[in-house]
Amino acid sequence: MDYENNGWIWEGVNYYPRVFGGLMVTAALLGLSTSYFGGIGVPYLSLPCSWSNLGIFHKKRSGKRRIRVYMDGCFDLMHYGHANALRQAKALGDELVVGLVSDEEIVANKGPPVLSMEERLVLVSGLKWVDEVITDAPYAITEQFLNRLFHEYKIDYVIHGDDPCLLPDGTDAYAAAKKAGRYKQIKRTEGVSSTDIVGRILSSLRDPKISGDHNDTEVKPQEENQSKASHIAQFLPTSRRIVQFSNGKGPGPNARIVYIDGAFDLFHAGHVEILKRARELGDFLLVGIHSDETVSEHRGNQYPIMHLHERSLSVLACRYVDEVIIGSPWEITKDMITTFNISLVVHGTVAVKSLNCELDPYEVPKSIGMFRLLESPKDITTATVAQRIMANHEAYVKRNAKKTRSEQRYYEEKKYVSGD
Which of 81, 222, 229, 392 is surrounded by the most beta carbons within 10 Å? Predict the structure, then answer.
């Protein structure tokens, strides 16, 4: 018996001997179970805890084993839909392990990836809900790989969205996991997909020369209609979704608050790395996300590809970010520094140059010695990501069309089987 931890009992016996003695005798005579005795209580006497929690009559319970869940994907052109899927997956367990499909597997099953394995790894590892990453994961979860997940990685459940994931032969990529009874499904995030983003880029950034070269092809009219439709964002932001992505806590009273701003369009590995470096300079990282109008004014009418709330969620999902300002001003003022108690303003060396160079947005923090230029770890930008897609124009058009046909066939067969 631990006399020190249960000292309140002996103090009670000394001060209220009749009460404690009466309770013990009554329990013994009536043969009441400890659970029942703790449940009926005693009028006007509130016991500090139930008998089962006193730690007197049994050994301390051992810790509960942590549930490990697995979710895989290409995670090419990382967007808030990917982040929300991983957030939902993490909610189904205690630890989230993410399988990152190899470049070779993506080429074989979907077409050329936009981002390299190294870039995709930086993006996935930078998400606040991810605990571990398995690189070079297979596109299809075979029984052999499933056994590896269960035994080597101690995975309890395989997670995937309610959208179809089909192999080139039309079969379900998660059939083995479903057969083993270790599969759980989450709801797909509506309003965005990598296919949709490619369509937006092809629509807004298409070079006139490229368009002219395809005037006589059959795909041109269909491609134009698809691109125009896809450029309209279908995302409907809610306060609940923003809360789900947020850390839910502000800076401490003496926290060193670091501020960095930008468009953060087509959230990529370069963004993650510069945010990581910025966070290392303080206790709290505040990120300003420029409005769509501000981005268009300084980057051109073809930007942004992703809209304000889409970009805000992508930044909020990053593990190095504590809070964002949605629609932050281009110019950092003294009042803004005071309002948010900013200690340091930083900016990366790699960024798309503004079309309007009349004003230096960092003039105020520079004048008071609160500005620092950070060496960007990567030279990737939103423009270079978009140019990769433009350079492989036909390949991505075919990739999008292939995925659309595959999904249409899947839903038609599902509708036929259900009898709807």
Answer: 81
Three-state DSSP state, 135: strand
Identify the residue with better confidence: 114 or 217.
Answer: 114
pTM of the model: 0.75
Element (H, E) at 68: strand 68-73
Whole-number Cα distances in Å, 356 to 280, 289, 330:
31, 18, 11
Strand partners, 68: 95
> What one-character-per-residue DSSP string does 138-166 give?
-SS--HHHHHHHHHTS---EEEEESS--B
HEC profile of 178-231: HHCCCEEEECCCCCCCHHHHHHHHHHHHCCHHHHHHCCCCCHHHHHHHHHHHHC
Least confident segment among 91-100, 278-287, 309-318, 392-401: 392-401
Closest CA to 324 of 284, 360, 294: 284
Between CA 250 and CA 268 the distance in angstroms is 26
In a 3-state reduction of DSSP, which class is residue 12? helix
